[in-house]
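From the methods appendix. Each design record in this collection lists the tokenized structure first, followed by the designed amino acid sequence. Records were kept in a plain field format so they could be parsed without special tools. The example shown here is representative of the layout used throughout.

RECORD:
FOLD TOKENS (235 positions):
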């Protein structure tokens, strides 16, 4: 009987994970439609794009206890008529960190002021951009330490924005892992046994076992419970 209860608890926790990421993907789908707007192949002026994206994402970043720490659209050059990717990306209020200190309002990411971002010269080669471009599907990257903005463990969800079968950018969000813990730990603690949420590579994201830290590799077996609609499993 105890095993049955524990299994039901793990499955309920997996459903909570699925529901959370389904909510994120629903937001991305709405942003994608709004950004495409009228069916035209003409380039969109960066200022116009920034106004459109800002209106979509800033309200979510201004919520009390927001889920997201970053959100926006990274446009391919052919979308804006520029020479490189255009980051129409906003950061939510940030806790004290070596890059920004602390902020109380959303702010737009300004790559031109980031001399330390030289290691990211070709953003298109990075996982959060290259995999949606290859698969034409939403992708979840992480957990990883974001050295560009948050200086903490985050998870990034990106979805391709396509016109005529060709990707013209990605809409996406960043979520602190510690924010995911607040969302998911109550359900995981109710599982009736230690539980670890792992990504596709088996790296821990959220754990009720204090011996398992974010980023640790966890062995997964046949009893791992998949979180539908995500690459994650509960073990």
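DESIGN:
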């Amino acid at each position: 009987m105890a095993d049955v209860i524990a299994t039901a608890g793990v499955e309920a926790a997996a459903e909570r994970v699925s529901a959370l990421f389904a909510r994120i993907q629903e937001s991305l789908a709405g942003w994608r439609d709004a950004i495409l707007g009228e069916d035209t192949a003409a380039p969109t002026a960066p200022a116009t794009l920034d106004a459109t994206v800002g209106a979509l994402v800033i309200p979510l970043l201004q919520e009390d206890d927001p889920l997201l720490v970053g959100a926006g659209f990274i446009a391919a050059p052919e979308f804006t008529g520029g020479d490189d990717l255009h980051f129409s990306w906003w950061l939510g209020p940030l806790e004290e960190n070596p890059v920004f200190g602390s902020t109380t309002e959303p702010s737009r990411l300004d790559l031109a002021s980031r001399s330390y971002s030289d290691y990211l010269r070709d953003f298109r080669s990075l996982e959060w951009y290259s995999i949606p471009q290859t698969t034409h599907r939403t992708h979840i990257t992480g957990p990883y330490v974001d050295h560009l903005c948050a200086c903490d463990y985050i998870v990034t969800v990106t979805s391709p924005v396509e016109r005529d079968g060709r990707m013209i950018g990605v809409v996406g969000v960043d979520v602190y892992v510690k924010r995911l813990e607040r969302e998911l730990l109550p359900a995981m603690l109710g599982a009736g046994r230690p539980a670890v949420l792992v990504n596709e590579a088996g790296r821990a994201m959220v754990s009720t076992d204090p011996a398992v830290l974010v980023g640790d590799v966890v062995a997964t077996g046949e009893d791992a419970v998949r979180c539908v609609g995500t690459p994650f499993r509960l073990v």
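APPENDIX NOTE: The first helix runs from residue 2 to 36.
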